[in-house]
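[SOLVED] Need 3D model of a two-part complex

Original post:
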Amino acid sequence: MLLIKCPFCRERSEIEFVYGGPVGPDRPDPTICTDDEWLDYLLMVPNPTGPVEERWWHAKGCGDWFTIWRSTVTHEVVDRPGDE
Amino acid sequence: MQNYSIFSLLRNGVTGHKNWSEAWRSPPLRDKYEVIIIGAGGHGLATAYYLAKEHGITDVAVLERGWLGGGNVARNTVTIRSNYLRDQSIPFYVKSVELYEGLTKELNFNMMHSKRTMIDVVLNYPKMRELRRRQLTMDIYGSTYEQISTEEVRRRIPALTGGRPGSRLPVIGGMIHTDAGVNRHDAVAWGYARAADARGVEMHQQTPVLSLVRGTDGRIEGVETASGTVRAKKVIVAVSGHTTTLTETVGLKLPLRTMNLTAFVSEPVKPLVDVVVNCPDLGFYFSQSDKGEMVIGGAPDSGQSFRRDIKQHVFEDTVSAMLELFPSFKKLKLLRQWGGHLDITHDASPIMDETDIGGLFVSAGWWGGYKAIPAGGLTMAHHVATGRPHPLTKDFTVKRFRHLDFIMETGTTTAR
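Solution:
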């Protein structure tokens, strides 16, 4: 069972949360971006063996949406890569 | 290849089983092949076999990081079925079920194939409507699917004592898929490996591929392994969850993400359920193995995962859902649990194609790929040998994402 740190409620059990999907690239402006950039935005998800950024919803708690970094190998919630 | 039969069994029985020949060779790794297949799992081995058998291409090396048949081909729940939704998918799975049924004879290896029917136990009307819609499409392609009443569901599955009228989610009926069955996963891996080896294909276990190698012309040139570089003009990636890990070593991005799926088995009990039971509304399915164990599969983890174990709360959710319909299972002890990581595409259909890197083929995005092994191997071998996609997989391209031409199969597997 994961302990996920909600920014408002602090660390709570994973069963209170709903997974909200991976964080992909930022939405480009569709009026000026190329087709490839748009497809990247729609379809491509980083799939590393390591930390990945994802959205979670504290559905059975305060209802906040937030992002965390979680390792796909250990499942541990980790710091944003690059942060010390 | 030593022929397996009742006579060879008797002969070797009386001589103390000392004279069986090895099922496949273990030759030294050469530095050049015509085709390299990464991953000695179901799809990799089947591709190797059909390359040799259908197209006479035998200068093939299958490279495996661990041991042969130790990946997802050993980590699934052996359900073979063809109740899919789309015109592009159903004929492919119908072909695969047909090939599975003839596989024991084809490979001279007992698959212990048991065509035992699958019953979907349905608990709500939207799901029933969705399954009846599937039936209409499946009728066109000769796959069997038929609605049955609640009474008939209970008659065929006596252990289903939960879900009575008045319960939170009463059973409202079922769908019956008589083409479905189960078989023995080790036999599939070993049978294909042995038959491919007999035609000259080499299997190399304990040979991890570290990265792919591109030539100066941009085409694929080979692979970098822990035992050195091996060159080949054609490389097939059939590694399930680690597809992107490999393709990204040559800068190829694919719309895949890797997730973990749950399975576990109970202690063996006397024959109780003689069909595959699937409950799409609650997210679990099971069948009883020949040994008597209940082989139970659950829903995927939320979020990406490269792990091969399962999460406690996913396991608990699956068990509690199952006990709603099968309260007598409360007394079962659970023996083993495991997970497998598999990659899923945006539309939950596979990618069976040559990529933008010439000579690099991927067989990926299999969610429930066990049932697809024979047809997956047959069609991938066709594509590699002829340079043109097989008619059954011509739509499972990488390009379809570029044109937003999705083959949506979300919901026809445990993927949501």
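Edit: Strands of chain A lie at 3-6, 10-13, 18-22, 51-57, 65-71, 77-78.
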